[in-house]
Design a protein that fits this description.
The chain is α/β, with parallel strands linked by helices and 210 residues long. Strands 3-2-1-4-5-7-6 form a seven-stranded mixed beta sheet, with helices on both faces. A hairpin with a 6-residue loop joins strand 6 and strand 7. It is 40% helix and 23% strand. Helix 3 packs across helix 4 and helix 6 crosses helix 8. It has one domain: 3-Layer(aba) Sandwich (Rossmann fold), CATH 3.40.50.150. It contains eight helices and seven strands. The protein is globular, with a radius of gyration of 16 Å. The structure holds S-adenosylmethionine (SAM). The site of S-adenosylmethionine has 17 residues, from helix 4. The site of S-adenosylmethionine (SAM) has 17 residues, from helix 4.
Length: 210
């Protein structure tokens, strides 16, 4: 992990790191609501989470999909570090999506990308999603969740914290910009549903079928 403000704050928190990071995240997104929505949308037995970070979404996925195999990948060395749960059917790997799909093409029936795209430079968005698409079986689903840019105080707060706590040059899309990107990569009529996730309408999730 790079030496961001977040890195030092987390080190100082010690055993409070997990509850504090859960609380921090809950200001912006109800992850339980997100995962319930995913589970309502898709039945799956082999799930990939791209950009799973330390495992907050993966942990919840493992609970709502009790019989599924789950794989979480991320470019960070801290991949899966905070996950608590059954590791017999959940594995984490520090690996770029390109390598994952080379080893496991068309293997998964559900792919989740949650709050990753705004950390990825826009010029790499198409390539990342094109690679990610290769991980899915024909007829499989991608749930793409991100934070929509708008002119509200909560968006400004989200931007400032993301920018200065993670140290990433975060850049958010609007829902229309996401729809255009999805159309470019996956084609027309692939968005089967869209849902705003509480507590902020900035949280938008797209259900995409390949
Ligand atoms: C805000 S965290 C989200 C973590 C998790 N998906 C969640 O919702 O709790 C963003 C994550 O995206 C990861 N990330 C950024 N660029 C990536 C890439 N090109 N491939 C995989 N992961 C990436 C970061 O390392 C980070 O862990």
């Amino acid at each position: 992990m790079k030496m961001s403000i977040g890195f030092f704050v987390r080190k100082m928190l010690g055993s409070f790191e997990r509850p504090v990071s859960e609380l921090y995240r809950s200001i912006f997104i109800d992850l339980n609501a997100l995962v319930s929505q995913i589970n309502y949308w898709v039945t799956a037995s082999n799930i990939l989470e791209l950009g799973c970070g330390e495992g907050a979404v993966t942990e919840r996925l493992a609970k709502v999909y009790p019989n599924a195999k789950l794989t979480g990948i991320d470019i960070t060395s801290r991949v899966g570090r905070m996950f608590q749960g059954d590791l017999s059917r959940v594995k984490f790997k520090q690996q770029p999506i390109k390598d994952m799909v080379r080893e496991n093409p068309q293997s998964f029936d559900l792919l989740i990308i949650s709050d990753v795209m705004h950390h990825v430079p826009w010029e790499l968005h198409k390539e990342l999603l094109t690679d990610a698409k290769q991980s899915l079986k024909s007829g499989g689903y991608l749930v793409l969740k991100d934070w929509e840019r708008n002119q509200t105080p909560i968006h400004l707060l989200c931007y400032l914290l993301d920018r200065y706590i993670t140290g990433d040059k975060v850049r958010y899309k609007t829902a229309d910009e996401f729809r255009e990107l999805i159309g470019d990569v996956f084609g027309a009529n692939v968005i089967k549903s869209e849902k705003r996730i509480r507590p902020w309408s900035n949280n938008i999730a797209f259900l995409i079928q390949v």
